[in-house]
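Continuing the series of single-chain predictions for the mutant panel. This is the parent chain; the variants come on the following pages.
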Amino acid sequence: MAAPARTSPDQGRREHFGEFYGLRPLPDDGRPLLLVHGNCQAEALRVLLAGAGEHRTVRTPPVHELEADDLPHLDRVLAAATVLVTQPVRADYRDLPLGTAQVADRLAPGAVVVVVPAIRYAGLTPFQAIVRAPGVGDPPVVPYHDRRTLAEAAPGPRRGAAVQAGAVREVAGSSVDELSRREQRHGAVVVSDLLAPAGADAVHTVNHPGNELLRGLAGRVLARLGHDVEVPDPGRTLLDSVHSPLHAEVLDALGLDPAAARPHWLVGGQVVEDGVVREAQLRFYAEHPQVVPAGLERHRDTMVLLGLVT
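Parent structure:
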């Protein structure tokens, strides 16, 4: 008896996005078709908007995964969509016509465009950072850097990493202010005012919002489209792949219950000790020394504020 054929990663991906790739027909039940365009937050938002029941939706690859061969499929879905919900994406992103305006221009006449912000919030994770260095991918274990570890790997005298309450509050406030500025600049649905009220559940990582924050955003998208409906709980945690440690001192500085603290990471549902991440990333910096100056240049102001560097 012949062994069953294995599904290649590309085949599996196309099945996952089967309606987008035309392997299955687009849903057609009379409701307007809504497309969400953006990063990993876009799919989480789509799940919530679909759950509200006002629109048909199509699971679409995140913008950073789209390739030139995907453009005809994107155009086919855009031609059928009556609502585009999109994050701000720069023109010619990755040398493809995937910018917000470029995608909106390919919609059918009369389609509605709603811009939503890409949410980043550093209040709960003031030491967490994203660093891009040419030719170097994500660090090991988790795709986030720790400003304390960057400071430790940097040349020169090392500073202590004690949590300073005033600095934590300033990082949190600056994070809210920056999101608010981006909302205003792009005419986006406002969600920045929901960050502080969401408390310790606001985000899982600096760029992965929690369910309640995403539900608040989905509700405001629907309100902008003229729908006064409740966004139901999806019954699972969205953007669940990585959860950052929560430090009691940070929670206390923000006026939150320190009992919600968590000293470890959760990666794919598994506990990973913070020290394991630190040691792996110190080795990574030794192997890729260009990452440290890139991180210091990008995050120096915040690192000075936190007392990590001078």
